[in-house]
Design brief:
20 helices; 471 residues; 75% helix
């Protein structure tokens, strides 16, 4: 007997109990993602990530105590905390990579994470079967003991993260502004020297050349506003006036951009401004559709396969459904990599990234409509169509977060959390629709929603007009 069937039999679960536990888990993930974004901006993604892993590990250790359906639903709620780790993961990765490759970086990490759901479907039953066949535990005990494995893995990962990993490329989260200032000073001094030596190779001139120096005008551990002043010696050297003006302008532009890239602590005004901006709302709606589609399909696909192909059996249907999730390891990174490649090829156009995101969403909607209309009963047709759905849906998710890194970079955690939470909200909405519609009609509805929303938000700018950084 498979693990899922054993738990269902042992706890005497009904179809409604299973559906409610799925919904409760998504609600928990939604709430955690909403709060995790601001926590990332305040405490740093690494610390937030590790804390969520530890909080999610505790309920897995309590699995042996579950004896009723209500107990399982409660457990699923707290285990749902782990779904919120997506937010600090994406925020943390974004801080380590240049905008030209950040889509690939975030998509690879998210793709591996989502594919982990498919791996778990095969791994946990294997552990359970081993405990029954080799350790001779009863089915009633074996499924409870098997949950010790995720508890150990989660706890070990969280502790390793706290003890061995850096907060940012420059060091600790609390000193990120000072570290950024120091790096800019070093860069400024080097390039000023390099420019002066090229414009006037005379050793005497080179020796007497004065270089720009940085003066922080507003500085704390969370914010960095920098201006440049020419030194007194430069003011008296009229022959360098033109070069100095050009260098100062270029360096000030670089410093303004660096200031915009520095994550600041969340404030009420800053949070409202970032969340309610049209570019942010665009990402929220896009991810609500594409990732919401993924969550709802993951929840019903095994049952849908079993309904259309009874010969597969519950175990076979579940394994084929798990393949949909496993494809994330290839298709989601493909979306991020394609977005980065188009961004570089276009010379840094964010409109190209945005149009790719919408194009994938519309293509996803088309294939969902085909599945909903045809309701295939030929196995080859069904699996082919669902592979196409997986590609466009998972690639769209990767392309969306390739663009997230550019929008309001000062509030990177906040935006990541809001967009991530929207995906969970979409899954919740679509699962509730499925309760009243049936499988094939759900696919038809998902198709209409994805196409309509993608077209409706396609005209909105990729980033706010007055944003300096993030380009």
């Amino acid at each position: 007997m498979q693990l899922t069937e054993t738990i269902k039999s042992d706890l005497k679960l009904t179809k409604a109990d299973i559906s409610n536990s799925n919904i409760v888990s998504i609600v928990s993930t939604l709430l955690v993602r909403l709060t995790a974004g601001s926590a990332c901006d305040r405490f740093g993604p690494r610390s937030t990530f590790a804390v969520l892993l530890l909080l999610g590990a505790l309920p897995t250790a309590l699995a042996p105590t579950i004896t009723t359906a209500s107990g399982l639903i409660t457990l699923r709620f707290f285990v749902g905390i782990l779904g919120g780790t997506f937010v600090p993961c994406q925020a943390w990765v974004t801080g380590f990579y240049d905008k030209s490759v950040v889509g690939a970086a975030t998509a690879i990490t998210a793709g591996i994470g989502n594919a982990g759901g498919g791996v778990t479907y095969f791994l946990m039953p294997a552990i359970y079967n081993s405990l029954v066949s080799r350790q001779h535990l009863t089915e009633h005990v074996a499924w409870r003991v098997s949950f010790a494995v995720p508890f150990v893995l989660l706890t070990t990962t969280a502790l390793a993260m706290l003890l061995t990993c850096p907060d940012t490329p420059t060091g600790r989260w609390s000193s990120r502004a000072l570290d950024t200032q120091r790096q800019i000073e070093t860069r400024d001094t080097y390039f000023s020297t390099f420019d002066d030596s090229k414009s006037n190779p005379n050793p005497k001139t080179k020796a007497n050349a004065s270089h720009l120096h940085i003066t922080p005008t507003a500085f704390s551990e969370d914010t960095l506003t920098i201006s440049l002043k020419p030194s007194q010696e430069q003011q008296h050297q009229k022959r360098h006036e033109s070069a100095t003006t050009t260098t100062t302008s270029n360096e000030q532009t670089m410093l303004d951009a660096a200031s915009w890239e520095l994550v600041s602590q969340p404030t009420y005004h800053g949070t409202a401004s970032a969340i309610l901006s049209l570019p942010t709302l665009t990402l929220i709606l896009a991810y609500l559709c594409t990732f919401g589609t993924e969550l709802s399909i993951n929840s019903i696909l095994g049952a849908y396969y079993h309904h259309n192909f009874p010969k597969l059996g519950q175990t076979g249907s579940g394994r084929w459904a798990a393949m949909f999730n496993l494809l994330n390891i290839v298709f989601r990174p493909a979306g991020g990599m394609l977005s980065d490649a188009l961004y570089r090829y276009s010379g840094g156009s964010l409109w190209v990234k945005k149009m790719l995101m919408h194009g994938l969403g519309i293509s996803l909607g088309i294939f969902l409509l085909v599945v909903g209309r045809e309701d295939p009963h030929a196995k080859g047709t069904m699996m082919g169509l669902m592979t196409a759905v997986a590609f466009f849906e998972e690639a769209a998710n990767g392309a969306t977060f390739s663009l997230v890194a550019h929008v309001h970079p000062r509030s990177n955690g906040l935006i990541t959390g809001a967009v991530g939470a929207a995906g969970a909200l979409g899954g919740l909405i679509f699962l509730l629709i499925e309760r009243w519609s049936g499988y094939e009609k759900l696919f038809w509805i998902l198709g209409i929603v994805n196409i309509t929303v993608a077209l409706a938000i396609s005209w909105i700018r990729p980033i706010p007009r007055d944003q300096v950084g993030g380009r």
